[in-house]
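hey so i finally got around to running both of the ones u sent me last week. sorry it took forever, my laptop kept dying halfway thru and i had to restart like 3 times lol. anyway pasting them below in the order u listed, first the sequence line then the C-alpha cell line for each. didnt double check formatting much so if smth looks off just lmk and ill redo it

first one:
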Amino acid sequence: MPNYKTHDRINLALLIPIVSILLYYHFEILSVILFSFSYLFSTFYLSPDMDTKSKSYYRWNIFRIFWWPYRRIMTHRGISHNIFLGAAVFMLYCLPLIVAIVILSHSTVPLELLFGFVTAYNFHIIIDKIF
C-alpha cells in the first residue's frame, strides 16, 4: 500500500495531464483553477485515509477535532475506500461544514470544486487498489 508521499506525488503528476486536457478542450480558466484548487486541497487534506491518524489528518492541525467523529464512525478500508460510495459518504459527513460556508459566504459551491474533490479522492482509492 502506498504511503502518503506516493499518493501526493501520483496525484500531482496526474493533475498536469488533466489540466492540459481541460485547457485543450477550451474550458474556462476560472473553471480549471477551481477544479485544480479543489483537487490539490483534496489531495493534501481530504483523503480517504481521514478515518486513521494519517498525514492528511495531521495536516489539519488544531482543526482535526472535526475529524474525530468520522474516525470513530468509519473503519479503515471500509466504505471510505469504496470508489462509488466513498466520496459521497465523505461529502455527507462534511455537509454541515459545506452548508455553513455557503451561508456565510452568500454563494454557491461550483461543480468544479466537487469534481476536483471527487477526482483526487477516487485517484487515491484507485492507487490503493493497484498497489
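and the second one:
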Amino acid sequence: MQIPHGAFDLAPLIPIAAIAVFGLLKVIRSPIGTALADRIRGGPAQPELEQEVAGLREDLERTQEALAEVQERLDFTERLLAGGHQAPIESDQHTPV
C-alpha cells in the first residue's frame, strides 16, 4: 500500500505514544500523582499540616498585635518629642521648702 502524496505515515508514532502513556500511568500511580489528584479533588490535607498552619496563624496574629503596640508607643514618643515637652526629671536631692 502506497501513502498518498502530502499524507503522513503515523506508524512510527505508535511506539512513542505507547511509551508516553506508560510514563503517564507511572506518574499517576506514584506518590506525586496521588498528591496531585488529592489537590485537584480538594481532598483533606494532612492533619499535621493543618495543625502547623493553625499554629503559624496564631503566631502571626500575636506578632501583628505586638507590632501594633510597638507602633503606638513609637507614635506617642514621636509626638512627645515633637511637642518639645520635657518630662520632669526626679532627682535624689530634696529641695527645702
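quick thing i noticed on the 2nd:
Residues 45-81 form one domain.
anyway thats it, ttyl
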